[in-house]
Write a structure and sequence with these properties.
single chain, 8 helices, Rossmann fold, 299 residues, alpha/beta, 11 strands
Amino acid sequence: MENNITHKYYQPADQGDDAYLNAIDLAVQSGARVIVTPGYLFETPVFVAQDRYPDVSFILIDGTPHSGDYNTVVGPNTVGVLYAEEQAGFLAGYAAVKDGYRRLGFMGGIAVPAVVRFGLGYIQGAEVAAQELGLSSGDVILNYYYTDAFWPMPEIQTGAAAWYNDGIEVIFSCGGAISDSIIPAASQSGNYVIGVDVDQSGLSDTIVTSAMKELAVSVYDCISDYYADRFPGGQILVFSAANHGVGLPMSTSRFRSFTQADYDAIFAKLVSGAIVVDDNIDIAPDAVPTNIVAVNYQS
């Protein structure tokens, strides 16, 4: 193993800031010099831990440390890692329309910034693909809804089933475990799902593709920097297409006609800046400028 690294996984015994901080305490007491924590639930615990353990380096994936008021304070021993979710969502929406889908859905969990960026990017990607294909206004319909939960609920499955029965062909499931409600609805109706964050193709044959954050790339890069004595402490890094921080898992995707060459071409445009995806989370989904895609926002 590179740099003779040993590692151990610490699972918090409970939920909440105290439980997450206790897990960090255990890791430090066991000799950890670098601690990687996942997601926004660790933002406040890392905010505390970075001062408590100044000789330990923290990599906070998908979040930034704060005291609970979202006033970000990144210590010199901490790096916050964020992702260009709008680009990942863009690629998913673009690929879906290029692959022949015309009735799309987006079910987001709680409308936190990351989820919002995924959704708004999804709309923009669908619009660009529709324009390239020469479609007419209204040829692509996109239903959009926030479930206000990151966990499965009967209401989510019922809502997804209603969308599918009404003609929606594929739903972007963008909210953690809400996929456990959306996938059964897709299976029962013979329709499809787009996964999120990681490659979710193994969950079901209904998963067409996944709008991914390349977590392994960002963690590897940050740990490599630590061992090369250039740890980016005090910084917030954004991983995007330009540094291979987001993407679609083409090798496991179940596209009908969207090819690797198609993907490479649109990805290159994101890398070069030929296409810039708007990441403004203050705009309402049905206010995203579109000429072809008709967005039905169910607030």
